[in-house]
Automatic annotation (TrEMBL):
Residues 1-26 form the signal peptide. Residues 63-279 form the Peptidase S11 D-alanyl-D-alanine carboxypeptidase A N-terminal domain. Belongs to the peptidase S11 family. This is Serine-type D-Ala-D-Ala carboxypeptidase. Keywords: Carboxypeptidase, Cell shape, Cell wall biogenesis/degradation, Hydrolase, Peptidoglycan synthesis, Protease, Signal. The keyword Signal applies. It comes from Eubacterium ramulus ATCC 29099. GO terms for biological process: cell wall organization; peptidoglycan biosynthetic process; proteolysis; regulation of cell shape. Pfam families: Peptidase_S11. GO terms for molecular function: serine-type D-Ala-D-Ala carboxypeptidase activity. It comes from the Bacteria. Substrate binds at K261.
Amino acid sequence: MFMKRYLKLCFCVAYLLAGFCQNVFGQQPLDAAYMSGSEVTCVPETQMQMDTVDQFSDFHCAELDLYAKSAVLTDADTGRILYGKEANSPMANASTTKIMTCLLAIESGKTGDSVTFSEYACSMPKVRLGCSVGTQFLLEDLLYSLMLESHNDTAVAIAEYVAGSVQHFAVQMNERAAELGCLDTHFVTPNGLDKSDEGGAHQTTAYDLSRIMAACIQNDKFLKITQTVSKTISSIDGTFRATLNNHNALLSMMEGVISGKTGFTAKAGYCYVGAYRKEDRTYTFALLACGWPNNKGYKWEDARKLIAYGNEHYVRQLYSADGEKRQIPIRNGVKIEEEDTGRKKYKYTYPEHFVVETETVRQELLLSDTDVITETWNLPKTVEAPVKAGNVIGEHRILLNGCQIVIQPVYVVETMEKFTYRWCLKHIFFLLFLGKI
């Protein structure tokens, strides 16, 4: 009797094993199935990398007649260039540098501290606050001197206090610029005076400068300072007083302008960086080498042209893409499902594909009539089991005019185990001896 049961069990094992093997190894080869009609869109990694190259190159919908040698208008929310003219060409940028000096001083958390003017700070050329060595001010008051009147001695006093020296402060400036993605910027001085060090000349690009401004306008204290029309400050001991007037004339010339900083050196020419916000949009813009004396007003004309261009050509729209499912071929996969029969029972299937999906995308974008949105998928051509639900299997990218604006993971939807002889024997044992049949 025992021998008969043993033989019957062996027969069942052999029969089930043969059935499992036939299901798996009798399939059409997965590569052939994939090549003959899969829904998977595969993008080689090298191509995916190329999609993001020159992401912020100059972009023109129409030529603007600008005085500036370098100019840019960007969407402050995304960093996208809406208009560019030599936007990535490094140039001297004069006192527009001071927006970074102001930002670092605010971020230091020391605005309530007292700052002492050193001999080196007092030696700076005009324009300067003009106090004597040893005079002390609250750092916050000095930020008005820095941004309203563009005092060069004040910039050095701030740098020395925040970082210990001008050189150390320049390191902080460059580190912060790198954090913001400003790849073509090198700062040497806190006031923008032309100077070089071992890293090169003090310079930036119109695009980098606009990105720094985008970070600045996220700071309420920065906005308060740069929107102030006039302010009187005093030294801590009351022996020195100065009335400061804002030289950013665009604040009163054009509704919607929320911040800005002028600049000039003989090398840089007239420069300007500003920000504009109205209703559904925020722009940052920068102008470099925008005329030399006696053409001080060129920068205001160019700034108004850039803003008008953005308002005329771009409309904010909601881009919406529902989560999408795709299939990837799988080798040696087995899917286990519990059947709802009132008694635990399992169903085994051997799919040729498994499902992946992305999340829903909702993003507001400034778009023009000529903008084109495309998608690319970076997925494996085929996968060897096992795969686990929730794991990341690839990338889905959304491109605007070939420039990446969204990158999101692609997730595995369903778990599949790997079919092997060991797996087969394990589950036969499970079915026969634990009664899950």
